């Protein structure tokens, strides 16, 4: 997928998602009151007209004067709709709601039902105003959630910091961020440490403390002291720009439900129109006391009810709500279609390192033989201090006591470990091969250890060993049990790590099926084998880089900790902005909640419309019931959809 550059100053909701007549109305926040003026004028004139009719206050209010009064009341709300209907008609799109409402209300005028004609158009117009406001608010929530674009960057040039637009900063330049300011561009921290609020990017409100040379991302807020950052990406390529672009474009990827409803509405509306024509004329052949005016009135009710507003507005609004709720929780869906897809997943395949484990070596256990643990570790740390290996770094994290031991004459034994002198004693640190080559006997218990193990001998006597392992993430175990509870029947772990280690992690997490020692193409083959069974709907969770082929091949690709990863953004369908696997469960729950609300709205809209259609055909419903079936149901559906923005998922 080619990345689309986005001008964030001009970030606006996708027009395709709006009701098709948005082009004809301005519902922007800056002129919100102005948009209601026509409706207010029509409402006041309608109320005055009804009052005069009811109380017979003005005897002259009849005939042409009455017609003119109601016509003037109709024009402010009716003219824009008639205009849009005419435009659609010229384009060949006959069965639009504008055309239907125009015919229904003009028809009401023709049969002398002037107040009802004005009232129907007035309530329709007011309903549309509220609907558009709700849609724009939902889109605004999505935008506001991530629109943390800083307005300026303090860049170091010519010996001083100057304020410029973030777009004007080049890669490699140094910027300064004061306390409370947003980091304007991605970069590397030059200061010794920083405390950052990354909530806009990850959904996590807990401050993130980082050290010198760590990566920082645009949109994070500096919480403590003034910090300096070296810029590594232009603004267009920064993490926040990609996220904004992703969320903006997500609304354009419609779900199958949305597409089906839109197509259905185009078929269903003309059917109702022809039924309305039938309601007008067919009774002439079967009813003895046929009155054209009565049957035309019933047909007009049919036309009002047939408008599919509740469906074509509330369903996209439901998906907007789901996308916004997910973003707020640090989960980015590339489109509404993936909200639906998450609810259908029954098979989950996951990587190990960086997904359920932290991807960082830690000391798991220490075993000594006739040595005090702290003294033993001081000998070992003195040796490992000379190495840059990840295992050496893990050993140097040992915090007990203060290591004053120094190693000298340290040499590396290729493929085996280290050899050197510490406090006049010869120390060997490495694997079993190193011990065997120096005729040092190693206890049998080390054979059963599947994790990485560091063996230590001091003065040619085995002194002990340290087990090094990749730590499980805090929420890993709970995630697996939660996945089963939300309907994931099969969980499989695939890893490039040693099979023995993979099997141990799988056992700890109670994952029955696991395979280790796999190359990326091996993982791809495993997923493709699962997909051959049409009953399997497969999601894959990986880091978005090495696992890109599998992410692309699965039904739903989920990138774990995708912040700042181009490959994750490009390849995955769902991006978890934090390193918490439990967010996958939350993504499934959000998808399920969204789907429930969408189907509630579909059933609500169709159910009430069918009831009022039947009542209207039987002469038991008036225009007022028709207005409720259209505008009223749309507003109820919108209120239901807005609930998503308030929901909480554990």
UniProtKB/TrEMBL annotation:
Q: What is the protein's species of origin?
A: Aequorivita aquimaris
Presence of the UniProt keyword Translocase in the record? yes
Q: Which residues form the P-type ATPase A domain?
A: 149-248
Q: Which reaction does it catalyse?
A: Zn(2+)(in) + ATP + H2O = Zn(2+)(out) + ADP + phosphate + H(+)
The EC number(s) given in the record are 7.2.2.12
Name recorded for this polypeptide: P-type Zn(2+) transporter
Please give the GO cellular component terms listed in this UniProt entry: plasma membrane
Query: What's the family?
Result: Belongs to the cation transport ATPase (P-type) (TC 3.A.3) family. Type IB subfamily.
Q: Which keywords belong to this entry? A: ATP-binding, Cell membrane, Membrane, Metal-binding, Nucleotide-binding, Translocase, Transmembrane, Transmembrane helix
Q: Where is this region: Disordered?
A: 1-27
């Amino acid at each position: 997928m080619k990345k689309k550059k986005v001008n964030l100053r001009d970030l606006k909701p996708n027009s395709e998602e709006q009701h098709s007549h948005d082009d004809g109305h301005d519902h922007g926040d800056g002129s919100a009151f102005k948009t209601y003026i026509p409706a207010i004028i029509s409402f006041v004139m309608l109320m005055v007209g009804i009052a005069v009719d009811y109380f017979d206050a003005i005897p002259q209010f009849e005939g042409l004067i009455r017609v003119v009064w109601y016509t003037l009341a109709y024009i402010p709300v009716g003219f824009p709709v008639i205009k849009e209907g005419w435009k659609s008609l010229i384009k060949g799109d006959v069965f639009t709601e504008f055309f239907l409402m125009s015919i229904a209300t003009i028809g009401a005028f023709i049969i002398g039902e002037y107040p009802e004609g004005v009232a129907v158009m007035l309530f329709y117009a007011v309903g549309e105003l509220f609907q558009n406001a709700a849609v724009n608010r939902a889109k605004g929530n999505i935008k506001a959630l991530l629109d943390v674009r800083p307005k300026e960057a303090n860049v170091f040039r010519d010996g001083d910091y100057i304020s410029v637009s973030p777009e004007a900063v080049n890669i490699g330049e140094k910027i300064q961020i004061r306390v409370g300011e947003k980091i304007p561009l991605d970069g590397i921290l030059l200061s010794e440490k920083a405390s950052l609020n990354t909530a806009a990017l990850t959904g996590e409100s807990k401050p993130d403390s980082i050290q010198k040379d760590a990566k920082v991302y645009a949109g994070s807020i500096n919480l403590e002291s003034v910090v300096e950052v070296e810029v590594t990406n232009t603004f267009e390529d920064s993490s926040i720009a990609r996220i904004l672009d992703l969320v903006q474009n997500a609304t354009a990827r419609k779900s199958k439900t949305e597409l089906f409803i839109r197509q259905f509405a185009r078929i269903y509306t003309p059917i109702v129109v022809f039924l309305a024509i039938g309601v007008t004329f067919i009774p002439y052949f079967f009813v003895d006391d046929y009155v054209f005016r009565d049957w035309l009135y019933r047909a007009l009710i049919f036309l009002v009810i047939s408008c599919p507003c509740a469906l074509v507005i509330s369903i996209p609004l439901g998906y907007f709500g789901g996308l916004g709720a997910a973003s707020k929780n640090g989960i980015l869906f590339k489109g509404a279609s993936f909200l639906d897809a998450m609810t259908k997943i029954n098979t989950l395949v996951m990587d190990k390192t960086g997904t359920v484990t932290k991807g960082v070596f830690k000391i798991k256990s220490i075993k000594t033989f006739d040595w005090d643990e702290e003294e033993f570790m001081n000998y070992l740390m003195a040796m490992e201090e000379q190495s840059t290996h990840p295992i050496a770094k893990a050993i140097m994290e040992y915090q007990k006591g203060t290591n004053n031991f120094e190693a000298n004459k340290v040499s590396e034994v290729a493929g085996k470990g280290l050899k050197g002198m510490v406090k006049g004693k010869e120390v060997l640190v490495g694997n079993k091969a190193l011990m065997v080559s120096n005729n040092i006997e190693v206890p049998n218990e080390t054979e059963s250890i599947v994790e990485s193990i560091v063996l230590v001998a001091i003065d040619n006597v085995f002194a002990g060993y340290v087990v090094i392992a990749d730590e499980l993430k805090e929420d890993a175990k709970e995630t697996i049990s939660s996945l089963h509870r939300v309907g994931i029947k099969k969980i499989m772990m695939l890893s490039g790590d040693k099979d023995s280690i993979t099997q141990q992690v799988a056992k700890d997490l109670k994952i029955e099926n696991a395979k280790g020692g796999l190359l990326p193409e091996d993982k791809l083959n495993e997923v493709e084998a699962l997909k051959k069974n049409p009953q399997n709907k497969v999601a894959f969770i990986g880091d978005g880089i090495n696992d890109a082929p599998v992410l692309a091949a699965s039904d739903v690709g989920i990138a774990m900790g995708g912040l700042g990863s181009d490959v994750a953004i490009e390849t995955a369908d769902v991006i978890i902005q934090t390193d918490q696997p439990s967010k996958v469960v939350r993504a499934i729950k959000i998808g399920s909640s969204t789907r429930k609300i969408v189907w509630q709205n579909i059933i609500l809209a169709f159910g009430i419309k069918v009831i009022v259609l039947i009542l209207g055909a039987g002469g038991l419903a008036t225009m007022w019931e028709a207005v409720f079936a259209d505008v009223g149901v749309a507003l109820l559906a919108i209120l239901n959809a807005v609930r998503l923005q308030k929901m909480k998922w554990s």
